Amino acid sequence: MWRISMSAVVFLIAMHSPICKSSEPVAVEVSDSDARMIGVDCTGKLATRSHVDGDWRLVGGSCCVESVGIMPDGTLLGVGDDFQLYTKKTPNVGDWEGPVDGSCCIIDVAARSDGSIVAVSKKKILLYRADLSSEWVEAKKNTIEMVAVDVFPDGRILGVTKEGGLKVKDGLDVPWKSYKAKGVKVKDISIQPDETVFGVGKKLGSLYVLNEGVWELIPESDCVKSIVSPRDLIVRNDD
What we know:
Blueprint (H helix, E strand, L loop, with lengths): L5 H7 L24 E5 L4 E4 L7 E2 L8 E4 L5 E4 L5 E4 L17 E6 L5 E5 L4 E4 L7 E2 L7 E6 L5 E5 L4 E4 L7 E2 L7 E6 L5 E5 L5 E5 L2 E4 L6 E5 L11
Antiparallel strand pairs: 1-2, 1-19, 2-3, 4-5, 5-6, 7-8, 8-9, 9-10, 11-12, 12-13, 13-14, 15-16, 16-17, 17-18
């Protein structure tokens, strides 16, 4: 598993502009192949980054969603402010389409490797459905309120509690268990293919990486509401 220390992050960052400023940032054309991490900025637009030490780059015509996930085929999943599910072909291709029938009412979404979908409902419980055409089913052993969720490559489900901590499930219908995450409280998470866990801080929407159970800040990475990681971020920008 890839690890990155705080000292390594600090010297990588120079002067990078966060994507949320008082003035409207300019959207640029972003290659889908470079969209190793996709985020939702504070205005509901998509932004991408390819390097840990890179900038968020806004994607034109991508407004507006509150949370984002991704299917195995690359289709984006978005949760609208109406708590329903929408789809988009890629960050740069197509408009948000939907809402998906019977997709209300959720606040976060993620996809499993088999194409099934997990989500967190407005009542902060875990839901799942076999595909976009199915109905939501409430997972069993829902004894802890969650606000966000993602899935490890091996199928384990990682959730963010309403307090900002992490819990893990080995399957849909088994109890939540503790997952070590010290430091900042987060509001969303994303798991890379190499199983590195990233989080979004609750206060400023800054990006953090979970390094041996401790959240470490990636400087100048705010402000996002939600993230998803279709590919591993590049650790060093040597361009």
